[in-house]
Amino acid sequence: MGDGDVLQFGGGAVVVVPVPGHTDGPIALHLPSPGVLFTGDAFANAGRTMLGVFNTDHVRAVASLHRPAELETDRAVFGHGDPIPHDAAGALRAAAAATA
Q1: 39 contacts 28 by C-beta, under 8 angstroms
Q2: What does the pLDDT look like over 31-44, one tens digit per residue?
Q3: pLDDT of 47-61, one tens digit each?
Q4: Strand ranges (E), 1-100
Q5: I need a labelling partner for 63 at 20 to 30 A (CA). Which of 3, 19, 35, 70 fits?
Q6: What domains are defined for the chain?
Q7: pLDDT at 20 (0 to 100)
């Protein structure tokens, strides 16, 4: 799977968003129609939205945080921490600005 690939799933589309830095090949999955983002382990929401604790390449991880921050996302689900049920884009943008 590559950047921007669209997969058909559950009657809708899922867009692949590469988010390297945590490791070499992680992806996030964005469901544009319902505005949902699955981040995997690349990002966390434990008290605040942030990069995952361990990153093999910090510079790439920071750059990767900016990608999902640009998406229209209402809800986000993380590999670690609580989901964000509303205005996940705002929390992602704030996290990206704080790690710039």
Answers
A1: yes
A2: 999 999 999 888 99
A3: 999 988 788 888 888
A4: 6-9, 12-18, 27-31, 36-38, 43-45, 49-51, 75-77, 80-81
A5: 35
A6: 6-98 (3.60.15.10)
A7: 86
User: What phi, psi does 53 have (nearest 5°)?
Assistant: -65, -40
Kindly report the number of other CB atoms within 10 A of residue 98's CB atom.
12
CA 92 to chain centre: 8
> Would you say 42 and 60 are in contact if contact means Cβ atoms under 8 Å apart?
no
d(CA 76, CA 24): 22
> 50 CB contacts (<8 Å, ≥6 apart)?
43, 44, 95, 98, 99
Q: Amino acid identity, residue 42?
A: A
Report the amino acid identity of residue 28: A
Predicted model pTM:
0.86
Q: State both tokens at 64.
A: 């990767």
6: left (phi over 0), alpha (psi -120 to 50) or beta: beta
